[in-house]
Amino acid sequence: MDILSRLNKFISLITSNMKRYIFLLLIALLLNTSCTNKKIIYPETDIIPVTDSYYGEDILDNYRWLEDDMSEKTKDWVERQNKTTFTYLGQIKFREDLKEKFEKIWNYEKLSSPFFEGDYVYYYRNNGLQNQYVLYRKKNDVEEVFLDPNQFSDDGTISLSGLSFSKDGSKVCYSISDGGSDWRKLIVMDTKSKEIIEDTLVDIKFSGINWKANEGFFYSSYDRPKKSELSDKTDQHKLYYHKLGTKQKDDKVFFGGKDNEKHRYVGASVTEDDKYLIIDASKFTKGNISFLKSLKDDSSPLIPIDEDYSTDSYLVHSEKDRLFFVTNKNAPNNKVVSASANSPNEKFWNDFIPEGESVLSISYSAGYFFAKYIVDVKSKILKFDLDGKNLGEIELPSIGTARGFSGKKDDKEVYFTFTNYNSPSIIYSLNPKNNQTQIYWKPDINFDPEKYISKQIFYKSKDGTKIPMTITHKKDIEYNGKNPTILYAYGGFNISILPSFSISNAIWMELGGVYAVPNLRGGGEYGKNWHLQGVKMNKQNVFDDFIAAAEYLISKKITTSDYLAIRGGSNGGLLVGATMTQRPELMKVAIPAVGVLDMLRYHKFTAGAGWAYDYGTSEESEEMYRYLKKYSPVHNVKDNSNYPATLVTTADHDDRVVPAHSYKFISELQKKHIGDSPVLIRIENRAGHGAGTPVSKRIEQYADIYGFILYNMGYKALP
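Above: the chain sequence. Below: its structure as tokens.
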């Protein structure tokens, strides 16, 4: 065979093999494409239309049936949704790597500030990965476990939610939550023997525990719902007194049992000498009236202190017959006033610590008042004596958030914690005589704050208002538009989001991520006026502030829309839901957690009507209805629209923001979303609004959330 013939045969052979190779390659590529880009088949959600009429306008609610948390149909829907979600999450190869990373960094000892009761010093400690913090105590340097909530249940879902000691420390009443529910049980224990000495008190909700000497205590609750304790409306809060040695059914109602005493929230405090009871009553989350009642005589009248629902006033401390209140009455940034117990009415108040330029909160310990100011989202602490004299500023370690400074009159030391976004919380002790501080305890954590930078900037919102934002990340990252970024905010209920260390944020930043927190209107960072700029008919300001924050990050090339995730919980879940429906192109991923998402019906569940101070209601006026409808996330998911990758998170025992909000929102998204990005819901079992969630569940949640975010930003492995 000549050379030419041999060459043609060789080419023919290669061509044949190449054809086979190319065919196999195409098949492989096709299979791979079908696996990675296959459109998710979402669980079928029945459409059972219900029509409501608002001011002559009919509103269709296709998923009203999901509000029934007791039905088998809803339970089945939850199971099918979770199956779809966890199947999707299961394909994220680095999800387990994330979980391991969380477990590694989370596993360090955590400690609370100590406090003194009777002959003991008490403190909480978590050895690392314990599901719940353990309460320890010491006497003569001998340590013992006093109360271990990890023994309440095998899976850590029953948590310790509060406790209060009697005046001499001989008894303690503690509350427990089952599965994250806001409904509590109260248990009374003898502190010396650690034996339970009373029958368990049940059906307690939104309650403090306020002892009268060592004889008994005040608590608050609602009547038990007739249908679902997790979703039925709770309207009339009552203040009870439980005398030790008696049955709960015999507990006396001190306030709230009459029609003219009907309030959604009722609380109490007892003066240090056990002479007086101060009762606070509110119809909404802001604004309260208050009364004083002598405890010497059960028949003594209620003496009005403050009868103005438009302001807030609370007892801070009592010194014999002298009462000290913090109030925002004629003081949007708060002030402290004093009054005699014999004439407690606001007409007789005297300014004690006047209003300043920054928002004030107050605490008392060791014979002094500690005025805690928020100055551009940073802590400043001043000390005052009982004459109202300013004794100087407490020096803080750096710029950040100081918490604590609370204790008893006879305490010899005052304790506080200090933290910021890149510094784990350190406990300090303060000598109240000379204001000298020293480190009491410092965590040994596998995280180096020196590698990170946290800076505050101010940007302009849509209407020109300057909004502060703190941006935290590794020092060496480049602003090239490709940094995975989480934009987190809250923006409501006069709540201030202050710099604070978080293990989950630390891991995000360790991966090269940016963590940005704007302090939106509706919060409490700049006082009452700042709050009011984000409520009711001003609520769109909050969303505009958040959108402007995203636009700022993009304009500075810190990130782009392809690498931006927005996240928020509760009222922050509403923020995310409203932002992603108004500006879906602005972000790649949206994580609305336990969100208030149906703004036309939120007030019909549990204590939701109490939020009307911030939101208004659809029944309030036609104008308010139309404003709510315009931004309500459930009602603003549009047909044939492309939304960002969305992971809605909620829990089956959330009886504060009922999961029906999230159920209805994801149903609308799955029906109307036309893009390839996943829109899924993760429903946690035996968990509530967040408090008391065991560490094991929190690690799993964060691994899933971060995995979802990074995967939808295009990452196939951890950065």
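Residues 3-36 form the longest helix (34 residues).
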